[in-house]
Specification:
Radius of gyration: 20 Å
Number of strands: 7
Helix content: 40-55%
Strand content: 5-15%
Number of helices: 12
CATH class of the largest domain: Alpha Beta
Number of domains: 2
Largest sheet: 4 strands, parallel
Strand order of the largest sheet: 1-2-3-4
CATH superfamily of the largest domain: NAD(P)-binding Rossmann-like Domain
């Protein structure tokens, strides 16, 4: 079993810490807010897990005053599980003297609790192999390539999910106005290429499940990161930009703290 520090105890970080602790790992010292002392949390640990909101939060926790970077043991590994993008991962890895795995996740708190996260891992393959058993406590770790690869694929997944939900919301608004019953529409969509999405999201698309698993404001934050990365790669993301504009409308209407699936009923209205 490993001695682990989990930096960032929001909903996901707390769930990850609890799951690892329940599996018998020593969580040692943990910290909850950026006003706490991350340097003290990482002394004498084998693994540092970061689960933070965005690149500025990662920068502060690692390299700010009393940041963790200077105190991480040289024998430790940083497993960065936030959605921060490949540029932030590269910047952190360049300044750290320990191996770094970018390991963002697909899934939410219930996925952590059930051990069913999908973990997209980039970095050195040998480092991944060394920690695959630990990551398997949380779900299914997938090695996807060199450093930054996991961060890229998480951004692509989130952008695709948000853009698809926006498109679906607009098209359901169309079928609503045409007088089609939502049950029949979703049944028809389940027969086509959106089958998996509709099956997974049906309770939320029907308004039966209003739980917040991933806030719309965070989904919009991830779109901003992917736009920055696309600009560096000289690539246009016009569909995602349209989705971002619709998300902005919903956030301005007060839905920023709702689950990002709330964009569908918002657009249907």
């Amino acid at each position: 079993m490993s001695t682990i520090a989990v930096l960032g105890l929001g909903a996901m970080g707390h769930a990850v810490a609890a799951k690892l602790q329940a599996a018998g790992h020593d969580l040692g010292v943990r910290f909850q807010t950026l006003r706490s002392w991350p340097a003290d949390a990482v002394r004498d640990v084998e693994v540092v897990v970061t689960m933070l909101t965005d690149p500025p939060a990662l920068e502060t926790v690692l390299f700010g005053p009393d940041g963790a970077a200077s105190a991480i043991p040289e024998t430790a590994t940083l497993i960065e599980m936030s959605t921060v993008g490949p540029t932030a991962i590269a910047s952190a890895a360049e300044r750290l003297s320990v191996p770094v795995l970018d390991a963002p996740v697909l899934g939410s708190v219930p996925s952590v609790e059930a051990g069913r996260l999908v973990i997209l891992v980039g970095g050195d393959r040998a480092v991944f192999d060394r920690h695959v058993e630990l990551l398997s406590v949380l779900g299914t770790p997938m090695y996807v390539g060199p450093s930054g690869s996991g961060a890229w694929l998480k951004l692509v997944n989130n952008a695709a999910s948000t853009a698809t939900l926006v498109a679906l919301g607009e098209l359901l608004a169309l079928t609503d106005r045409a007088g089609l019953e939502i049950d029949a529409v979703l049944g028809g969509l389940e027969a086509g290429p959106l089958a998996s999405l509709v099956e997974r999201w049906r309770p939320r698309l029907m308004g039966e499940d209003q739980s917040s698993y991933f806030r719309l404001a965070l989904a919009r934050k991830d779109l901003a990161i992917v736009f920055d990365e696309a600009e560096r790669e000289d690539t246009d993301l016009t569909v995602a930009e349209t989705a971002a504009a619709r998300c902005d409308e919903a956030i301005e209407a007060g839905l920023g703290d709702d689950d990002f699936g709330a964009i569908v009923p918002f657009l249907r209205r």
